[in-house]
C-alpha cells in the first residue's frame, strides 16, 4: 500500500511536470531546458543526500546501476520532450504512460508467470492507445504525427528501463546516494549531447521559473519511485506512477483547452484502466 501511495503522488507530480513540458517544448530548445530541469533536481537531491545519505552503504554495483538508470532517464526524458513538441497531449501521454506493458514483457522474459488478466490489460492498453490515435485523426482532420508517436514509444521504453535499473540500484545501495548518482549521470549525458549539438544558449528568463518548478517536481517523482525499491511490492509504485499520463490529459483539457470528445475520453479511460490493472 505504501508503494502504491508513493506512486500516486509521483503520478500527480509528473502529470503537472508533463503539462509544463508541452508548453516549454514549444518555446525553447529542448536540451538547454532539460539541463535546467535536471540541474535543479540535482541540487535539491544533493542537499538531502549530503545530510542524510548513507554513503557507506553505496556499493560499486549500486553506483553502476544508478549511472545506467540516469543515462536511460535522460534519453527517455528527451524522447518525452520531443513527443510533446510534435503531438497533442491526448496522443503522447497514453503512449509514454504505457511503459508498464514493457515492464510486464521484461518480467515474462525473466520467467515470471503472466496471467490471462494481465494479457487482457495489455490488449486494453494497446487498443486504447490505437483508438486515441484514430479518434484524434477524425477530430483534427489531419493524420496522426507518426514522429510524435515514435518518440512517445521511445519515452516509454526509456522509463521502463529507468525504473527497473533504478530500483535494482536501490536494492544494492542506499536510496539518496543512488538518486544523486542517477541525476549526475543524466546531466553528464545531456551536457555531452548539448555540446555535440552546439546548444549552449540558456533558455529565456521568462521560462526559467517554470523550468525550476519542473525540476523540483521531477526530482520528487523519480525519488519516490526509486525509494519504493526499499518497500514491499515496489512494482506497485512504478505502475501507479504511470498514471501520470491520465493526470496530464485531464490538465491539458482543463488548462490548454485541448478538445476531447466522448470517444476519446472512453479510449483514455480504457488505456489507463489497463495500465492500472497491470499493477494488480
- What proportion of the residues form beta strands (DSSP E)? under 5%
SSE string: HHHHHHHHHHHH
Output mean pLDDT: 81
Q: Helix tally?
A: 12
What characterizes the major β-sheet? none
Number of separate domains: 1
Shape: globular
The separation of the N and C termini measures 12 Å
Classify the secondary structure makeup into a structural class.
mainly alpha
Poorly predicted parts: none
Q: What oligomeric arrangement do these chains adopt?
A: single chain
> Helicity, in percent?
over 70%
In angstroms, what is the radius of gyration? 18 Å
Number of strands: 0
Topology record:
Layout: H1 2-24, H2 30-52, H3 60-86, H4 89-97, H5 99-109, H6 116-140, H7 146-172, H8 175-197, H9 208-227, H10 235-241, H11 244-256, H12 262-277
Helix pairs in contact: 1-3, 1-9, 1-10, 1-11, 2-8, 2-9, 3-7, 3-8, 4-6, 4-7, 4-11, 5-7, 6-12, 7-8
